[in-house]
Structures are given as C-alpha cells and as structure tokens.
C-alpha cells in the first residue's frame, strides 16, 4: 500500500490522484473573455468561501490559459453543469469539439452556459499561489438558479449519475429569485 513518505513530505502523485478522486464533486465550467471571444475551462475545484462578503474560489493550473486573461479586478462566470452537459464539460476539459455549438448567455457582460443548474458571475479580488495552481478568490456580483435537473458529478476519474429523490432546491422556484 502506498502511503505518504513522511521523511521528505512528498506524496506519490498516482496515490494522491486516486485518493482525491474518491471525493465526489460537481462539475463547473468557468467562463471568461479571451482576446474578445468567449472561452472557458472545466473545473471541479470550486468552493463557496464566505457569505459576508459573498466569495467563491476556483483553483487553476499555473500553466492554464485562464491565467493569461483573468487578473485581479476581472470577472469570470461559473456554470454548474447538468447531467445532460457532459459533452460541454469534455469540450472545455481538453477534448475540443469544433462541431459543438456552445449555448452562451450573458450576465454582467460575462459569458455563462445555458442549460446549467446555476450561474455565478464574480470579480477576482485575490489570487494566491498554491503549489502548481493559483487560487482565484472572487466576490459574487450575480447569482441565480437556472434549470433544475440532475447535476453532472465526477467520481473516481469518471462522470457519474446520481439518483436524486428531489431536486433539493425547495427554498424557491426560479420565478421567486
């Protein structure tokens, strides 16, 4: 069994990925403007950080294209993907499909993806180095539920389906927000 090597503080990369893959996560597409065109990346490293002020965080590889276009003060969008949007996740996750037409919508002059479960537009307030990634902390400027359907989830290195007993969004319907 592989374990953390305590002497040097290093972790076997394969073991790290395998264990972290046991954490089920939702899937998002983070969208932004790149050279005047909509662009995006698939991310499951997304968390809410604070309610007051309302902050979110995404983790981006240092060599990622996102870093060239989004700086402190810039906006980006986050769309929580629905189960039916696996092709969009794959497209923005590196399996580019030229034939795929991305159904964009815009809030606060920021691209988002139609058909997602929820949308967030946030302005970057801090960027922190963290190993081979950068952590983007951003303040929410726009927040709305969208289509209410099953979420796209990722577990064990693969997309998975979940059986939802209810949509879990009983606080309000889309017309009440």
The CATH architecture classification is: Roll
| The CATH superfamily title | Electron Transport, Fmn-binding Protein, Chain A
Question: What is the spatial order of strands in the main beta sheet?
Answer: 3-2-6-9-10-5-4
Mean pLDDT: 83
* N-end to C-end Cα span: 50 Å
Q: State the CATH topology.
A: Pnp Oxidase, Chain A
Using the alpha-carbon principal axes, give the shape: globular
* Uncertain residue segments: 4-8, 171-177
Question: What is the count of β-strands?
Answer: 12
Largest sheet: 7 strands, antiparallel
What count of helical segments does DSSP give? 3
Reading off the top of the CATH hierarchy, the class is best stated as Mainly Beta
**What's the domain count?**
1
Helix content: 10-25%
Structural class computed from helices and strand pairing: mainly beta
- Portion in beta strands: 35-45%
Using the CA coordinates, give the radius of gyration: 17 Å
Secondary-structure element series: HEEEEEHEHEEEEEE
Name its key features.
177 residues, Pnp Oxidase, Chain A, seven-stranded antiparallel beta sheet, three-stranded antiparallel beta sheet, 12 strands, globular
How does this structure look, described?
The chain has 177 residues and is mainly beta. It has one domain (25-158): Pnp Oxidase, Chain A, CATH 2.30.110.10. It has 3 helices and 12 strands, in the order αβββββαβαββββββ. The strands form 3 sheets. A 7-stranded antiparallel β-sheet has the order 3-2-6-9-10-5-4. A 3-stranded antiparallel β-sheet has the order 1-11-12, with no helix packed on it. The protein has a two-stranded antiparallel ribbon with strand order 7-8. The N and C termini lie far apart (50 Å).
